[in-house]
Design a protein that fits this description.
- It comes from Streptomyces coryli.
- This is Beta-lactamase family protein.
- InterPro entries: AmpC-like, Beta-lactam-related, Beta-lactam/transpept-like, DUF7586.
- The chain has an 8-stranded antiparallel β-barrel. A 7-stranded antiparallel beta sheet has the order 2-1-11-10-9-8-7, with helices on both faces. Strands 3-6 form a two-stranded antiparallel ribbon.
- By secondary structure, it is of the alpha+beta class.
- The protein has 2 domains: 282 residues, Beta-lactamase (3-Layer(aba) Sandwich), CATH 3.40.710.10; 88 residues.
- It has 10 helices and 19 strands.
- A hairpin with an 8-residue loop joins β16 and β17.
- The radius of gyration is 26 Å and the shape is globular.
């Protein structure tokens, strides 16, 4: 990853970012805090604050990242899926027998909709030795589930213990070795490790009513490690943010990462600004003009002595990382989101220049003939063609179902968003090649409202006055 140059961001932007992390370190009463910002795959800013005079942690200082570990596991599970070794609809027991909830599907475990209880049996697993829970098949006492599977989101650390064991089972090697070989090394994340490697921060707890602190214990969590064991740096997590946004075919494609960012779990109760995909947290940051909010994806993490966050804004090409070494400190989610917001507002993304389609495609009269107004019944739509042969269907007058469509080799298009996601748009032609109508998920779109020359279901009676 490219290191930040002196002019990577404007001075006012850098000042605002520094002010935000300085405020977080001071008001959050955290011994140290490091942060970084990525734009279009490059590290464009990093900063650090500490309570020790003359010392500041840098992009190579390790912090424990807690549940950001889960995103590493999720990416590896999706690698197994893309290789055809598993299906996300498979029950866990098909590949990993001997657990207490083998009927949960892999998709449910990834999205925290399996119904599993949040924590394993025994004392607080994050602060006790994993030897207290030596067997994967005995992580619970007698009641592993607290909700019916597939019904609701309920965060479960234990579900990722199962997924880590699944990776090890199918690869025939410890999950840490698999992650290093297949995920971390290809992405250049040599400083992301299951245990601390110097230089690293120590974890602290700060007294809630006094400016004193005590060290947190460093524990080996055993079979629960896939839920939150890893350590990393802002430099490595900047690489991870860039990967989550754009993909890397050596690890996982951009299309699969986009699938992981799709909501798979309904938000709970009044929390309609957050959801969960396949191992990815999804939030809508309300701090944006026009009231639409900024769509962010990533994950937060906490372990005794540490808080961590990594978020991306795919639309803006931005990512942010924040790491602290305190058990209870700054609101890590707000801090990470604010770093993205500051850059997006100070230096909004400059769009790519418009370019016409290649001459050969522009000469395709049949393709151009598809553009313009179409009608679903009496509702008018416009079909617009883009340089990559993609299509946009837009309601005229503001009412109706809009969608984007990806071209396919067979001459059809596939919906990418909205109501028509995954559905097929197909031009229907006569024997001489003339398009009579569009078939969109069985709906008939015609050139005229209820065109009598098109096969409108139920026929047409003709337009009449009263």
């Amino acid at each position: 990853m490219t290191p930040p140059g002196p002019d990577a961001l404007l001075p006012a932007t850098r000042r605002a970012l520094l002010h935000r992390i300085a405020t977080a370190q001071t008001e959050g009463r955290t011994p140290s805090l490091v942060a970084a910002v990525v734009r279009d795959g490059a590290l464009v800013w990093d900063g650090g604050r500490t309570c020790v005079d003359g010392h500041a942690p840098d992009t190579d200082t390790q912090y424990r990242i807690g549940s950001i570990t889960k995103t590493l596991i999720a990416v590896q599970v999706l690698r197994l899926r893309d290789e055809g070794l598993v299906d996300l609809a498979d029950p866990l027991e098909k590949h990993l027998p001997g657990t207490q909830h083998g009927s949960a599907t892999l998709a449910q475990l990834l999205s925290h909709t399996s119904g599993l209880a949040a924590e394993p049996r025994g004392p607080w697993w994050e602060r006790t030795d994993g030897a207290l829970r030596p067997e994967l098949g005995a992580l619970y006492e007698d009641r592993p589930t607290v909700h019916p599977p597939g019904r609701r989101f309920h965060y479960s650390n234990t579900g990722y213990a199962y997924l880590g064991a699944l990776v090890a089972q199918l690869r025939g090697a410890p999950y840490e070795e698999v992650l290093r070989r297949e995920v971390l090394e290809p992405l250049g994340m040599a400083r992301t490790t299951p245990g601390p490697e110097a230089p690293h921060a120590g974890g602290w707890a700060v007294h809630p009513w006094a400016d004193v602190m005590q060290p947190e214990p460093l524990t080996e969590t055993g079979v629960m490690a896939p839920a939150g064991q890893y350590w990393s740096t802002t430099a490595d997590l900047a690489r991870w943010a860039a990967f989550l946004a754009a993909g890397d075919d050596r690890v996982l494609s951009a299309a699969t990462l986009a699938e992981m960012r799709e909501p798979a779990a309904a938000p709970q109760e009044r929390d309609w600004d957050s959801s969960f995909g396949l191992g990815i947290q999804l939030i809508r940051d309300p701090a944006r003009d026009e009231g639409r909010g900024r769509l962010l994806a990533g994950h937060f993490g906490s372990m005794p002595g540490f808080l961590a966050g990594v978020l991306i804004d795919v639309a803006e090409g931005l990512g942010a990382v924040a790491l602290t070494n305190v058990t209870s400190g700054p609101a890590i989610g707000s801090l990470t989101a604010d770093l993205i917001r500051i850059v997006a507002e100070h230096e909004p993304k400059i769009p790519d220049p418009w370019r016409p389609m290649p001459a050969a495609e522009a000469a395709d009269a049949d393709l151009l003939a598809l553009t313009g107004p179409w009608y679903w019944g009496a509702n008018p739509f416009a079909l617009r063609l883009h340089a990559d042969r993609a299509l946009d269907l837009t309601p005229l007058g503001g009412r109706g179902r809009a969608s984007r469509f990806r071209p396919e080799p067979d001459g059809t298009w596939t919906g990418l968003d909205g109501y028509y996601t995954g559905e097929t748009l197909r031009p229907v032609r006569t024997e001489d090649g003339r398009v009579t109508h569009l078939d969109l998920a069985t709906f008939v779109l015609t050139r005229q409202p209820y065109d009598p020359e098109a096969p409108v279901p139920g026929g047409t009676e003709g337009w009449q006055g009263l």
